[in-house]
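Help wanted!
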Amino acid sequence: MTALAASAASTLAVQPSLAGMTRAEIADSLRALGLPEREIRMRVAQLWHWIYFRGARDFDEMLNVSKALRARLADAFALRLPEIVEEQVSSDGTRKWLLRLAPVDVQDKGAEIECVYIPESDRGTLCVSSQVGCTLNCSFCHTGTQKLVRNLTTAEIVGQLLVARQRLGDFPGRERPTDGLTPAGEGVRAVSNIVFMGMGEPLYNPDNVMAAVDVMADGDGLSLSKRRITVSTSGVVPQIERLGAECGPALAISLHAVRDDLRNALVPLNKKYPIHALLQACRDYPGASNARRITFEYVMLKGVNDSPAEAKELVRLLKGMPAKINLIPFNPWPGAPYECSDWETIERFSDIVFNAGYASPVRTPRGRDILAACGQLKSETEKLRARARLAAG
Ligand code: SAH
Ligand code: SF4
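Answered by r_m:
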């Protein structure tokens, strides 16, 4: 092991994992191991194929790599993924995984995040987290009540997709586990779509999120189309521009209100980036077209943002923009200060938007029974602290 790899291994107390890394990170790791520069490209391509196309879990599977090099790799590195510490399966087939990340230093026990898999007949969607917790405190969101512990690394974001593909048997040539699977429909990849709608604000961790999108979309590996990868943001305007220019996944905006005074209360970030600036960034988002519409998410809060006048104002605000509006029934969580709008109110709102020419699907709540629905994610990392406080009090 080189001095660099050895010092990384000793401070982390674990070997660095190549699974989830970008090409540049894998190349740097191989350089640190002392591989000659002329070999690096070829070795990166080999590792890339085994890790991302074949789903290898052990260096010894990599039969086109010499036995001696496999031993060196296994000595210096791991192919470790986030560990599934709990799997809950909803009555509707939604699965929620509680994942433990590798410790970042000797004091760290390994932060926990949640990741949700939603199978449907024509697709399988994986909802991934980008941070442990969130700093933004939207008043209707459970995750917002959990303090930010830290940003996820690129490898930890990609690792969520790798875990799901392993668990669902979604790598070519690997067997599907048989215990109670709920895959998507026949002939559909188990994970065909990614949404960054788990814990955290992706555009507060833009470098790692964009690098992760690029790994997920790489045609020699995980091969998801960027059109099927959606980054959802509460409205970090300058980073929306960067996301469009440097990466270009599908964009979703958590709008939730049509007036600044109300949006300030629901999504406090609005005080920094108000509605008109946010919508301008959407109009400028490259590639937005009728085939690539921007999604506007709108949580339905009873008596707060759900009137017909607000539906009409929403249509007016979005005029001329290739958009679809996703109405999300509010998912309750313990102690939440809101209720979900009545069904008739949601339908009336949806009709107004639909009649103005916008698709306005109401997002069927999935996995509510296991607190896996939008905004209900919150990991044990915080829950334990709350429990400890209770015990102390
Ligand atoms: N931080 C990003 C992505 C994660 S939240 C964002 O805010 O866009 C994913 C979606 O779930 C967002 O639209 C969010 O506003 C919504 N959401 C949060 N809490 C919710 C709740 N309790 N019920 C329904 N949707 C919720
Ligand atoms: Fe954070 Fe998004 Fe929740 Fe707001 S809605 S607190 S930005 S996770």
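OP: Thanks! One thing I noticed: Residues 138, 140-142, 197, 201, 232-234, 254, 297, 299, 328, 330-331, 374-375 surround S-adenosyl-L-homocysteine (ligand 1) (CB under 6 Å).
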